[in-house]
Amino acid sequence: MSENLFWEDVAAGQELPSLVKQPSKRQLVKYAGASGDFYEVHYDKDFAVEIGLPGLIVHGALKNAYLAQVVTDWMGPDGVLKKLSVKYRGTDIPDDALTCSGRVTKTYVDGDLHQVDCALSLTNGSGEQTTTGTATVVLPSRSG
Amino acid sequence: MTEAKTLSDQDKKALLVMSLPPVTMDVERGHIKRFAEAIGDTNPLWSDESAGGVIAPPTFLRMMITEAPAPPELAPFPQMLDGGSDWTYMAPVKSGDVITAVTRFASVNQRNISVGPAVFLVLETDYTNQDGMAVARQRNTLIRY
Question: Using the beta-carbon criterion (under 8 Å), do B41 and A81 form an inter-chain contact?
């Protein structure tokens, strides 16, 4: 986790440290309990198969949380997350290794806010990009 | 093949003017801790109380629209897929806050997807704290088929 990341330290093209998440079925149940999302496709395989899915799938909102963590880990305690968007392009299955990554796309000053835009991506164990996203953060500036 | 499923213009209009009941929640420290564990996020911010309350991770508010609204217009489309979310954050959410979420259907469109006719709904939720301050907005795309 970075401490005191400053806007001046960031440039377009920089990679955010990536995270690898491998949610087990147990983790999906924990997420269902903590988030209140009890849609059966996340823990009842019979139900999932009955509605035409190959098996259990990972909550989209859990992937959203993973990509949020990529940003909040990187920006440190003084960064402020202003916007976060995710699009689910494919479903993910439990126990697969999901690589969550980010890259700086733009740094700019908006009024007195020193801002950074990032592109986010989640890739499954087969190398398929199943979630994409963007984030906008405000970072402290050395110029005060 | 089942019968053709469709959503009339009248159904779409009914959804767009529908007001869904507001949801209010006390943000509890233990709930934030449990949520952080469930997403596997060990950031000390989600357990540090020095700021007068524990800060909630960015997607914590997701839990406030746990049951997707199920108006009768959508009954022919029983299955759902989450298409994604766009979050805008205005102020941090901390333990001790009382958050009210108000959700409406911001757009309703019928489209065909690989499994047949589907309805793409954008659910827009505004989150306000106990001081009446807007803290976040989520636009969630829900695909019903």
Answer: no
| Percent of chain B whose predicted confidence (pLDDT) is above 70 | 94
Residue B22 is classified by DSSP as P
Kindly list the residues of chain B whose beta carbon comes within 8 Å of any beta carbon in chain A. 31, 34-35, 37-41, 43-45, 57-59, 62-63, 66, 79-89, 115
pLDDT for res A3: 66
Q: Is the pLDDT of residue A106 over 70?
A: yes
Q: Which of B23, B43, B82 to mutate to test the interface with A (most CBs of A within 10 A)?
A: B82
The CA distances from residue A114 to A136, A139, A140, A144, B91, in Å, are 10, 6, 7, 10, 17
Alpha-carbon distance A4 to A38, whole Å? 38
Question: Which residues of chain B have a CB within 8 Å of the CB of A134?
Answer: none
**Domains present along chain B, CATH in parentheses:** 9-27+68-144 (3.10.129.10)
Contact status, residue A137 vs residue A119, Cβ threshold 8 Å:
no
What are the chain B neighbours of A64 within 8 Å (beta carbons)?
59, 62, 84-85
Question: Residue A28 has what pLDDT?
Answer: 98
Q: With an 8 Å Cβ cutoff, are A69 and B80 in contact?
A: no
- What pLDDT band is residue B23 in, cutting at 50, 70 and 90? very high
- Short-list B26, B88, B23, B33, CA closest to B56: B33
Domains of chain A and CATH, by start: 7-23+59-138 (3.10.129.10)
Q: Is the complex ipTM more than 0.85?
A: yes
